[in-house]
Design goal:
The protein is 71% helix and 6% strand. The chain is rod-shaped, with a radius of gyration of 33 Å. The structure holds zinc ion. Zinc ion (ZN) binds next to loops. It comes from Breznakia pachnodae.
Length: 104
């Protein structure tokens, strides 16, 4: 027959076991959550990096509308076909596009 002390010991053993299980589940959930959030953050960071790369490329180069060659932004003529690279016109068109978009 079990004594009262043994009953308490059994109950304590059980509760401590239960607590360890709960801690383990808790830790696992946090790890899963953190990993998932980290993946989302990584995705957003990668998109930012890609956008920045595109932005830098577009700012650094101007494309010849005739032969599609990429020329550095400081050049006035296409290095391949010699067509004048009209940056002024491009920025004006962009401004007009922006104006028409904002007026909508
Ligand atoms: Zn060209």
């Amino acid at each position: 027959m079990k004594t009262k002390k043994q009953n308490h010991d059994d109950e304590l053993n059980y509760l401590e076991f239960e607590l360890r299980e709960q801690y383990m589940m808790f830790g696992k959930k946090i790890l899963d959550y953190v990993n998932n959030e980290q993946i989302q953050i990584d995705k957003t960071l990668n998109r930012i990096i890609e956008e920045k790369k595109c932005k830098i490329l577009e700012e650094a180069y101007i494309q010849c509308h005739k032969c599609m060659t990429l020329n550095t932004n400081d050049s006035n003529y296409c290095k391949w076909c010699g067509t004048p690279l009209d940056k002024q016109e491009e920025t004006e068109n962009e401004l007009k596009e922006n104006e028409s978009q904002s007026s909508k």
